[in-house]
Write a structure and sequence with these properties.
- This protein has 181 residues and is an alpha/beta fold.
- 21% of the residues lie in helices and 35% in strands.
- The protein is built from 3 helices and 10 strands.
- The strands form 2 sheets. Strands 5-4-3-6-7-8 form a 6-stranded mixed sheet, sandwiched between helices. It has a 4-stranded antiparallel sheet with strand order 1-2-10-9.
- Strand 1 and strand 2 form a beta hairpin.
- Helix 1 packs across helix 2.
- The structure holds inosinic acid (IMP).
- Inosinic acid binds next to strand 6 and helix 3.
Length: 181
């Protein structure tokens, strides 16, 4: 399928499932090499990273654990800033090597907040593994150690990423077609 329609928007294929699998395997190999002997805890951020997490974990061959969290954002009463609360983290991460597994780092604000929150729980080290980065949009100076693919600043869906809840199910990634195309 080269073109899909979700609600009011048309999307065209930009990264095939085969390309994604190749890059995910490459990232997994890097992690296997770097984190051997560290028993990492993979912390998958739902919903967007469910496919990436599944494919990444299939290629991780070192002893490890995986857990899933959700971020709830709410308006803080005292300021206008949005706070991201980490839901569902029951594991004790103190003195652990943690690998955050994200679908996409866009501005980097979500990741910054997540790092702040996890940092208060005394992990030994935290690494970031993300399927995608939009370098042109990045506003925060993050040390992103594992990146499967860097993409232009266009809205995408598929392979876990959604438009208004839809489109997460596709094994390819699709980019929105601009109105004048
Ligand atoms: P950030 O806080 O700006 O880095 O935003 C990260 C979140 O925005 C991701 O976890 C996604 O849920 C969402 N996001 C950013 N870009 C896209 C996109 O192109 N398609 C779908 N979701 C996106």
């Amino acid at each position: 399928m080269n073109r899909i329609k979700i609600k009011d928007k048309e999307f065209t294929i930009s990264i095939t499932g085969e390309q994604i699998q190749r890059e995910v395997k490459r990232v997994a190999d890097e992690i296997n090499r770097d984190l051997a002997g560290k028993n990492p805890l993979f912390l998958s951020v739902l919903n967007g990273s469910f496919m990436f997490t599944a494919d990444l974990m299939r290629n991780i061959t070192i002893p490890c654990e995986v857990t899933f969290v959700k971020l709830a954002s709410y308006q803080r009463a005292t300021t206008t800033g949005k706070v991201k609360e980490v839901l569902g983290l029951s594991e004790d991460i103190s003195d652990r090597t943690v690998v955050i597994v994200e679908d996409i780092v866009d501005t980097g604000l979500t990741m910054e907040r997540l790092l702040e929150t996890l940092g208060t729980r005394n992990p030994k080290e935290i690494h970031i593994a993300t399927l995608l980065v939009k370098p042109e949009k990045l506003r925060i100076d993050l040390d992103i150690k594992y990146v499967a693919m860097r993409i232009p600043n266009d809205f995408i869906v598929g392979y876990g990423l959604d438009y208004d809840g839809f489109g997460r199910n596709y094994s390819n990634i699709y980019t929105v077609v601009s109105e004048n195309e």
